[in-house]
């Protein structure tokens, strides 16, 4: 008696399957291995001498000070309103000691900006942002600051469209609205840049964060003939022009540029890099939380090729991740444009098996970023619970570890910094949780 088994062509990493044959009391297990065949496997090792790779290596593995200076209540920025204590110098010293090399400091400016035409930024707000930037500098960390939730948009279940002054939908409809937004953006970035004019190269400005129409890339941006993409490109040009015009160290400062909702695919397809009088000083910023139902929502407990089918999302496994990162490498890194994953993360689980998949996911993201010559930043919102929105690794006021934060950081630092030649994406894949 003979049996024939067929499998679809492998488009991903090397994979294994076991076939168990039972006859009476006898049992035989046959292990079948299918060779790897994907875009990442076929790419040569990244050239460490590429200028874009060198910039990414300096940023390295970063930590987001999330739900902190970006927090707000009743449309007013408020550092402690989302549950975190005030960040201290000790916090960022411990972030550095934990193994991170950079910190992204998201900043919301709501309620701290005056009326047109000057849009004067409250001095206390600027001073507090400057104080935290100095914490990072003293700790030996690279730092990124931005305009964060001023562009947040959310469509509620009842249809309510919650949005703020960086309104890309209305800007795409109304030229006057777009011009007013650009004037405010110019004024704010002029003031921010002037405040930090003398800060060294360790400080990077990131113009905008996750600009979209509330549908995360699947809304009217797909039907408006490219209007929203064009508007965002205009805004990024305003940002670059405003910063460069302030002179000093800002004339050559690295600037982070993001595409529509910081989605990698939409960035590659629709972002037009701003014209910059300073050569090779623009960086691409994207975010990666795929699949969101695993990484953010905790609707699934497992991830990757070894995850149980009933416990993992139907898409977004290792092959998906590698294709996206390889595409960023091709579109930008190999053309001399540095890339950083400005946000990525995965929420804490309350059982060991789910945490094993969480750590595997985070290690894989970090290793893939390193392999493709990019920097990567973990989103830490300080939340010490388990489940949705619980991505805390360190207490923001003290720098002490939250939950199993040290273990999670250790796998990420291994993924990004290990120089062991036998440690590859394939070896990591082959040692996924079982």
TrEMBL record:
Gene Ontology cellular-component terms listed: cell surface; extracellular region
GO biological process, one term: glucan catabolic process
Molecular function GO terms recorded: beta-glucosidase activity
Keyword annotations of the record: Glycosidase, Hydrolase, Signal
Residue span(s) of domain Glycoside hydrolase family: 75-384
Domain BACON: 3-35
Coiled-coil spans in chain: none
Any Pfam family the entry gives: Cellulase
Key word Chaperone present: no
InterPro entries xrefs: BACON, GH, Glyco_hydro_5, Glycosyl_hydrolase_5
Family the UniProt entry places it in: Belongs to the glycosyl hydrolase 5 (cellulase A) family.
Name by which UniProt lists this protein: Glycosyl hydrolase family 5
Organism of derivation: Bacteroides muris (ex Afrizal et al. 2022)
């Amino acid at each position: 008696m003979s049996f024939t088994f067929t499998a679809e062509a492998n488009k991903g990493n090397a994979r294994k399957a076991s076939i168990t044959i039972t006859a009476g009391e006898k049992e035989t297990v046959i292990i079948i291995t299918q060779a790897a065949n994907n875009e990442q496997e076929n790419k040569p090792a990244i050239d460490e001498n590429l200028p874009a790779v060198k910039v990414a290596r300096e940023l390295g593995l970063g930590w987001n000070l999330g739900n902190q200076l970006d927090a707000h209540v009743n449309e007013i920025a408020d550092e402690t309103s989302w549950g975190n204590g005030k960040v201290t110098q000790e916090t960022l010293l411990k972030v550095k000691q934990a193994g991170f090399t950079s910190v992204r400091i998201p900043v919301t400016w709501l309620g701290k900006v005056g009326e047109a035409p000057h849009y004067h930024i409250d001095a206390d707000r600027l001073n507090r942002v400057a104080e935290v930037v100095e914490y990072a500098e003293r700790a030996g960390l690279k730092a990124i600051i931005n305009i964060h939730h001023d562009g947040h948009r959310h469509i509620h279940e009842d249809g309510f469209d919650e949005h703020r002054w960086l309104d890309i939908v209305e800007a795409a409809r109304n030229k006057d609205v777009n011009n007013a937004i650009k004037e405010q953006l110019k004024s704010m970035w002029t003031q921010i840049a002037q405040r930090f004019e003398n800060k060294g190269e360790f400080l990077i400005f990131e113009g905008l964060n996750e600009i979209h129409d509330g549908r995360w890339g699947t809304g009217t941006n797909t039907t408006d003939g490219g209007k929203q993409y064009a508007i965002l490109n205009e805004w990024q040009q305003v940002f670059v022009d405003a910063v460069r015009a302030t002179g000093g160290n800002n004339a050559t400062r690295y600037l982070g540029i993001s595409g529509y909702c910081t989605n990698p695919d939409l960035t590659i397809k629709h972002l037009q890099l701003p014209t910059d009088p300073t050569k090779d000083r623009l960086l691409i910023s994207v975010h990666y939380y795929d699949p969101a139902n695993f990484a953010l929502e905790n609707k699934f407990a497992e991830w990757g090729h070894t995850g149980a089918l009933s416990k993992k999302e139907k898409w977004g496994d290792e092959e998906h991740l590698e294709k996206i990162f390889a595409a960023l490498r091709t579109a930008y890194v190999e053309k001399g444009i540095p890339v950083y994953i400005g946000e990525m993360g995965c929420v804490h689980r309350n059982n060991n098996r789910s945490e094993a998949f969480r750590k595997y996911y985070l290690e894989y993201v970090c290793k893939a970023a390193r392999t493709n010559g990019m920097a990567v930043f973990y989103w830490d919102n300080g939340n010490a619970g388990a489940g949705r929105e619980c991505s805390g690794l360190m207490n923001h006021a003290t720098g002490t570890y939250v939950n199993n934060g040290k273990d999670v950081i250790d796998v990420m630092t291994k993924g990004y910094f290990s120089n062991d030649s036998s440690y590859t994406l394939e070896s990591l894949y082959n040692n996924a949780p079982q």
